[in-house]
Amino acid sequence: MVATSTPFLQMFARSPFKPMQDHIAKAQECAVELIPFFDAVIADDWEEADKVQARIAVLEGEADAMKKEIRQNLPKSIFLPVPRTDLLEVVRMQDKIANRAKDIAGIMLGRQMKVPAEMQEDMKDYVRMALQTSEQALTALKELDELVNSGFGGHEIDVIEKMLEKLDALEHNTDEHERAIRLKLFSIEKELPPVDVMFLYQVISSIGDLADRAQQVGSRLQLLVAR
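User: That's the sequence. What structure does it adopt?
Assistant: Structure tokens below.
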């Protein structure tokens, strides 16, 4: 059986973006688990946090396997509407969304990190804002099939560009949340163990990076649309 008849390559033949869409959907599924994870952490329920972290690890592994499959099988011989290297770069950025979710859950569970009471609601809002950003990246990527079907028509380009503008706005809002929560931590850090403060700043940074990676997916899509 020739390589182009494999189910994976048949998927590319039907839609050059379908495997990428499936991959970012898996990355987002992984990241969304941060909501119940933080709920468990804030409730000081480490047994539940351990269960959620295990789900995150499994989903991150599945996303990583999908990334490797795309890299190994993205065809060089069939028509692709955009450069192969650009598609691979989008996949790499998408994978960072799942990676960051795994990193955040791993460090918090490993240290059984507590979120100070003064920051708990802000932290949950911050996580949700970051996840809205990655969800918007997924929404924009789903629209690429319509763009190809329209022959990169003006209307579909406008639709995607509006989605990417919203993605940029969500990422900016996440940045604002990050600044606010850093200021709140700074205001109380003298009351906390220094090592705990250091790791809290690291977690805050990683949540922001998750949103940054989603925004980078959007930036790369914008370049693809502009070609």
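The chain has a mean pLDDT of 86.
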